[in-house]
Amino acid sequence: NAGVTQTPKFQVLKTGQSMTLQCAQDMNHNSMYWYRQDPGMGLRLIYYSASEGTTDKGEVPNGYNVSRLNKREFSLRLESAAPSQTSVYFCASSADRGRGTDTQYFGPGTRLTVL
Amino acid sequence: AQSVTQLDSHVSVSEGTPVLLRCNYSSSYSPSLFWYVQHPNKGLQLLLKYTSAATLVKGINGFEAEFKKSETSFHLTKPSAHMSDAAEYFCVVSPVEDSSYKLIFGSGTRLLVRP
Q1: In terms of C-beta density within 10 A (0-12 exposed, 13-18 middle, 19 or more buried), how is residue B64 classed?
Q2: DSSP label at A73?
Q3: What are phi and psi of A40, to 5 degrees?
Q4: Are B44 and A106 in contact (CB < 8 Å)?
Q5: How far apart are CA B15 and CA B65, in angstroms?
Q6: Tens digits of per-residue pLDDT, B58-80?
Q7: Over its length of 115 residues, how does chain B's per-residue pLDDT go in tens digits?
Q8: DSSP string, B57-88
Q9: Is residue A23 within 8 angstroms of chain B, CB to CB?
């Protein structure tokens, strides 16, 4: 049982390049999330998906797009990377459909540097 | 608006001594509250959660936290620190009254355990 997996683990981009971060969970969870973690700021929600086929903006969605490909997979796309998007990105999932009380399970993170 | 404040950015203790990590929250109603731990270069792992049942919540690895509504606090404690407890700890609130999925993270407390 792998839990939540993320690829890649590390990535370096030049300003203006695009890339997609992949996330998959094998726990049959309904909800999935993308966060970014910056020093001294905790985690901030970028986008979330309460169920397959739905996505909604979180606290810091600008510059990102997401796709809930199926129940297992939730990808995050940077169309034109900027240095301000240098961060560690975490994907998470939870069983609930938006109640917010269920435990979120986190992936190991993707460390992204934009030059 | 809901918020969570971790009162110490860094805490240093000696191995075998008690740990206290402080957290205060702001919420209109009784929220769900969580403590997550993040070891270096790892994802976040749930330590414990409060969801309006018993006010004293026991978690993994000997940690516990007490929900005090009158003080709007949810401090994390452990009687005796172990070297493996060195990590960053996040207090998290889920504002259940607005039916959102959004967790609000504190800025984190880095725990250092001295031999």
Answers
A1: middle
A2: B
A3: 70, 10
A4: yes
A5: 20
A6: 999 999 999 998 899 999 999 99
A7: 678 999 999 999 999 999 999 999 987 677 889 999 999 888 899 999 988 778 899 999 999 999 998 899 999 999 999 999 999 999 998 876 555 567 889 999 999 999 9
A8: EE-GGG-EEEEETTTTEEEEEESS--GGG-EE
A9: no
Cβ within 8 Å, pair A100-B102: yes
Alpha carbons A86 and A18: distance in angstroms, whole number = 13
Nearest to B49 among A59, A103, A108 (CB): A103
Q: B110: part of which helix (H) or strand (E)?
A: strand B109-114
Chain B residue numbers touching A101 (CB-CB < 8 A): 32, 49, 51, 94, 96
- Tell me the three-class secondary structure of A34-95, residue by residue: EEEECCCCCEEEEEEECCCCCCEECCCCCCEEEEECCCCEEEEEECCCCHHHCEEEEEEEEC
Are B34 and B26 within 8 A, CB to CB? no
- Select the residue of A4, A33, A40 nearest B107 (Cβ to Cβ): A40
Inter-chain touch A42–B96, beta carbons under 8 Å: no
A101 with B96: Cβ contact below 8 A = yes
Q: Is B98 helix (H, G, I), strand (E, B) or coil?
A: helix
Contact at CB, A45 and B103, closer than 8 angstroms? yes
Structure tokens at B90: 């996040």
Answer whether B102's CB lies under 8 Å from B3's CB: no
